[in-house]
Amino acid sequence: MARHAQVNFIEHPKLRVRTERSALLGDSMMACPVFPHEFRELQASYPVVFTKEDKSGLFRPMALFGLERNENVFLDGDHWDATYLPLALRIQPFLIGLRGVEGEEPTPEVHINLEHPRVSETEGEALFTETGEHTEFLKSIAELLAEVHGAEGNVVAFSAMLNELDLLEPFSLDVTLENGTVGKLTGFYTIKEERLYALNGEELERLQKAQMLQAIFMSVASISQFLGVISRKNKRLLASI
């Protein structure tokens, strides 16, 4: 269970965070949330798809790392085999906390999940110097969290625009692996290409002015990376025989 706390020297003088990659540190995952401004880098390695949140109706972009729960074909022991690591993974186990009084704009704070396997007092990157100052590592995390804070608002606007222009459709993928296993990937959405290519000039201009058009085309381009994910999975299956 998560246990969140504000990062501060008085309560956490010896806190450290392990930054290596490992299944034991939480990296054995099928997918993680991503942000539109990352799509250009993401599409070179991962398929970018969307999930729909039941309560809010928000379409949240995700980078896929595998075809089933707890599978990550990009994780090889302690090595992440891709050119780009999504922002949501780079900030773990940190998150944004908001502090403020009623009627005022909340102030973002650096919080941490103390129960996350990356948290330690003996291994990893220190958060504070011996005199209580923020280390360069903690400063870099604060910058990443600020980036995430702004990017989260972009996800909401991006989702609303995709929904308004009817640019998303349910996606399913039938997969037959080298060992004969047949499976079906469902529950995700992708860009509706037929609708995208039929957008009129006014609609295209709206997307361009909102700086969303490139992200949409990068998402479309990323779908070809399913072949890479399947190939990686097949190699693992054959290596285990």
Count of helices? 7
Mean pLDDT: 93
* Proportion of helical residues: 25-40%
Q: What's the overall geometry?
A: globular
- The low-confidence runs, each spanning 5 or more residues with pLDDT under 50, are none
Rg, Cα atoms, Å:
20 Å
The biggest sheet, with number of strands, parallel, antiparallel or mixed sense and barrel status, is: 3 strands, antiparallel
Distance between the termini: 36 Å
The run of helices and strands is EEEHEEEEHEEEEHEEHHHH
- How many domains? 1
Strand order of the largest sheet: 1-9-8
The share of residues in extended strands comes to: 15-25%
Keywords:
241 residues; alpha+beta; three-stranded antiparallel sheet; 13 strands; 24% strand; globular
Which helices and strands, and how do they pair?
Blueprint: E1 4-6, E2 16-17, E3 31-33, H1 39-42, E4 48-52, E5 59-64, E6 75-76, E7 79-80, H2 87-90, E8 94-99, E9 107-113, E10 119-120, E11 125-126, H3 136-164, E12 168-176, E13 182-191, H4 193-196, H5 201-209, H6 213-222, H7 226-239
Antiparallel strand pairs: 1-9, 2-10, 2-11, 3-5, 4-5, 6-7, 8-9, 12-13
Describe the structure in brief.
The protein has 241 residues and is an alpha+beta fold. The chain has seven helices and 13 strands. A three-stranded antiparallel sheet has the order 1-9-8, covered by helices on one side.
